[in-house]
Amino acid sequence: MAEAEKPPIRITTTTQTFKGHRDSIFGVAVFPDRRRMVTASYDKKLRLWDLENGVVLKIMEGNRSGIRELAVSKDGEWIASGNDGGEVIVWNKDGESLTQPIKVHSKAIGSLDFPPDSTFLASGSWDTTVELWNTKTWLVEGDPINCGSDVRCARYSPSGEYLAIATKNDIQIWNPHKRERLAKFQGHSAFNGAWNTSLVWTPDGKQLVSAGSASDPTIRIWDSATWQQVGEPCKGHPNFIFMIALNPTGTLLASASRDNQVRLWRLSDRQTIAIFKHSDEVYCVAFSEDGKYILSGGKDAIISKWAVPLVEDILKDQASDDAASRKDTLKEQVADNVQQSDCEILAINTTARNACITGDLPTADRLLTQEINADTKDYNSYANRSFVKARNSDWDRALDDALKSISIQPSLMGCISKGIALCGKRQFEDAMQAFDIAFMYVDADLNKTRLLLLIKAIALFNANQRDEAILRVQELATTRPNPNSLACGIVEAYLHVQLGMDALDDARHNEAADHFTAAVNTIGFPSMSAIHSRYDIFVVLFGWDLKSLWQTANQNWCNALLRAGRLPEAIEAYRYMMDRADEATKARCIDWSTAFKHDCSMLYPTTGATDLAAVGDDALAAGDYDRAIELYSAAIHLDLATDTIFAKRSKARSGKMLWDDALLDVEKVIELNPSSYFGYQLKHEVLHGAHRYDEAIEAFKIMLSKLEDAPDTETTNLRRQYASPSEAEGAIEDRIKAQLEDAPHRLINTSTGRLCNREVQINAFRMSAEYKELLSSTMKHADLQMERIRDVVAMYFRYVMLSHRWEGAEPSLHDIQNKVVYDLDPVGGIPKLQSFCKTARDMGYRWTWIDTCCIDQTNNVEVQQSVNSMFIWYRHSALTIIYLSDVPPSSQPGALASSVWNTRGWTVQEFLAPKFVLFYQKDWSLYLDDRSPNHKDSLEIMQEMGHATGIDAQSLVAFRPGMRDARVKLQWVSARVTTWQEDIAYSLFGIFGVNLPVIYGEKRQKALGRLLQEVVAQSGDISALDWVGQSSEFNSCLPADITSYKAPPYTLPSLSEDEIQRSISSLRHVAGVDFVMSIYTLLDDLNAPRFANCRLHLPCIAFRVTAVKRSRAQDQEIYEVKADGLHDLLITTKDKLTQFSSPRPTMQTFFLVRPWNRYLLELPDFAEPSGLAGLLDVDDDMQSEEDYWSAPGSPLQNSFSSGGFPEAQESVDPELSDRALRLTARLEQPFGAFLLAQQRGGEYKRIASDHDIIAQVTDLSSILDMVKTLEIL
């Protein structure tokens, strides 16, 4: 396997922790002096820390709400904090406040940053703006940068020339000095609508790195020349990435995530090389100034300091940056150093040197003594023999030889030997002087200086000055000129091993484990032979065994954890060691490995886990995932693993949402059993759970192919349990089409701010996480889970409609097409559009519709389709927002009733059609501060609407479109106005459920006439003929204007049941059953009224007018009228009628007619008609007009012969007879009539009256000859 593909190092042990905050930590920053750190918490405090000892230097108070952002100027002079209340406070480097809380943003601060010259401070906020502060005055300079969406991060480029801003919806690049936007691109928003959460520039400014939210939890790199993505993204986090940070050289990147992890990435190949595990969500991360440590904090209110592992993988890519001057990986350094020693400071013959290295000290002593005897002035041999004596702890003779060497010739080796000997004799002050003098002989050689400092520290360590020794090595590692040298790391690791061994001997097992952990994290691979040769000076001087350092550290790490009772960690450490050990190391560890596994196996029975896998199964079944993972891991680490155990641990890890770990197990399952479908089935489940749906779908396809190719029939039959991707895609596509049938063709995407046609909407869904998740999950079920498909599709495509009053310059489709709504200049109706989209977006809705710019007003076909579909669109909206631009904030009840919105024609259907509505005031706050999800459920608001509109309570909250009670619906809109006169009729199409051509320019009378003609023709409802005013040119029986319906219809006095029964009793004696049945039959046989070509064929009872006499009153004409079968009556009209009487007859025929109303027959109730399928019963969108409407029919067909009259009284159905008598009783009562005048062609025209004409029958017997159907023009 390639080096880049090695699994990341998993680190759970911190180098240091900083505790004190009482709430989540959102910010951490290190000062350039490398000594101090500042942290910001939601506990409203900042803390200034000493990085070395973890002491709090200053608690900085003054914030009035939780702190979310923190920045330290590049020169280390200033600290800035930003809180949830939109306030900024500035502090000096010592933590003294320079300003009071300054509120310049209306919402939480989302980001703070200083440019390289520290002359400005940029503050970004969730209020969509970025402000620039002058650091001399701490005042905001210039206008804010309007970004159009919540600002999540703002970062100056290394040159300070650019300011990169990450918002929820895009990434923007600005010239901050000119307030000029240079570029904008979607960034992570292009992937599942994710937010852009964090930014960081590479040190050379050539690339910008960004992080995304949960919908795209990746890290992406952008070329600053083109703003195109560079290479593949960094993938690994399964959840929201809060912050990213680069090390000083720009080669390593750290990311903090909601998944409780900080990941360390190698930027060159996007590989995760280490994972630092927190106990909770991680919100902030930073590198130390030297890049050796990572500092991170989050929900656990603790800052954790992690050592960046000194491993070859981390430093691999640095070689390409400066290969000539720096060798950055262990292998490169070792390879170079085998050929060229780091520094030669030992002058010793090879034989004696080898004897020291192998530990044959007597031989080394003998050889060096021979050299001294041969040349008593050989000061080097004295110094070398002093080293040998020191290794034997013969400190007096070691000091004698050292002093002899110096007396002959002062030298570097002589001073070193003296210093070591004096340390051994615990004469530390003199020893330090000796080492100090030694520095005179290094000739300013940095390598020799570093080596001498390390020897000095080791000598102190061996003299039991261990704390001071460790501190010296750590300080040297921090300040050494060559940050990539191995020497400090090797020495520090060796010293930790020695400390660990001492702690282990004293049964301080946890302390020992910590030391061995530090050593293991410092040395990254087992092959130490080259290092042993390279640093044999430590072997010669101190007898160190560097060859086995890695093995010793790892074995004792495992042993210490085991003895500390940390069995799971011990087993994990064992596995870590075995995974990284080379074959030679494994061979040397066979005996130890066997014994260690035996010890672990013996400990598990004491916990009741005699069969690790079986007990793991029980824990998994009980949902105890931690225990299951522990047990399965123990089995795996102890080399008891099978593909089944890996599979089960994967399921347990999935239960904990540890998707990366679960996926590693899945890959192992596939590796162990590549021909089985099971591994790919499990891989699909894990990838699906990790929201990596594209990969999940590919895994599922492979699983299907494995099932299809299985050699046994039983496995092949399992294929029937699943659907193919094409089947799932087809089912989803069918549901999309059905869903969008009742939706507008164009919608605005609230995330992108762009107008999208249907094709774009569907493509957006196909690219979304919702679609991919649905496809991935649907394939698992052969029945395709149609109900869930419906729910997911409905949720994705749900949209919000706006009901409002057009004002001034409203934006058109062409004004916003191919533009981002949020970027438009806020003029005219644009702010309303922007606020509407933001309000819907903030409520979680993806799509919005507004009539001003979602319809192409220049396309007549589209306008006609939209007008006829409008009611349906509002009906099927997830929410309709009603914007009251003239209702100020904090208005009292009654403001809604007086709003101009309540006077407009279109707003009637816009309120009645939707199931959910919310009223918003001028400032886009909720009316009456009513925060219920549906204002139709608000009794107070609905009562106000009822009083304002005259609409009954039932219709207000659950309106059903249709033609019943047409007169009532016409009265609702009789006082409404529209900009275009035809719209008063068009706005009623949906309310009546009709679909008619839209013909702008036809004028009001024709538009209203066509509508009323359709209502009467379809329903037979003649209540629309009940009006007073002027006749229409379309048809004289219809009004010229909707205002003719403003007055309520004349309400005739209703008969009580007692009165009806008395009348029936009278009729039985006077008229007889035969007579009343004749009337009933005659009226029952009448056809319904019908309209054709503007002509009304009206069934009615027509009473011939016999006399008309005029009597003038003011501007009106009042006529006394006589008619056959009626009492005399008065008619008021502006029309002039010809006067006539029996002595002076007229050629023109006049009738007073009673339009026939079939409801008087008291037939069984039929459901009301509607032309809008699916709108009557909101719970059944498949019901059609035919389900509840049928044409009028006669119930007498089975009672009468073909002649229509009963043959004998006793054959009449008593119930039918009773209805006939009740009808006759009602015919005797007063009724509303209108006057018709015959025309030359035999048709009639209605003569309009300014008042209701109320007539009453005098002679019922005459009715039999007066039942007619008249054609009215």
From TrEMBL:
It comes from the Eukaryota. Pfam families: HET, WD40. It comes from Suillus plorans. The keyword Repeat applies. This is Heterokaryon incompatibility domain-containing protein. The keyword Repeat applies. SUPFAM superfamilies: TPR-like (SSF48452), WD40 repeat-like (SSF50978). Keywords: Repeat, WD repeat. InterPro entries: HET (IPR010730), TPR-like_helical_dom_sf (IPR011990), WD40/YVTN_repeat-like_dom_sf (IPR015943), WD40_PAC1 (IPR020472), WD40_repeat_CS (IPR019775), WD40_repeat_dom_sf (IPR036322), WD40_rpt (IPR001680). Residues 799-887 form the Heterokaryon incompatibility domain. WD repeats lie at residues 18-59, 60-92, 102-137, 234-275, 275-306.
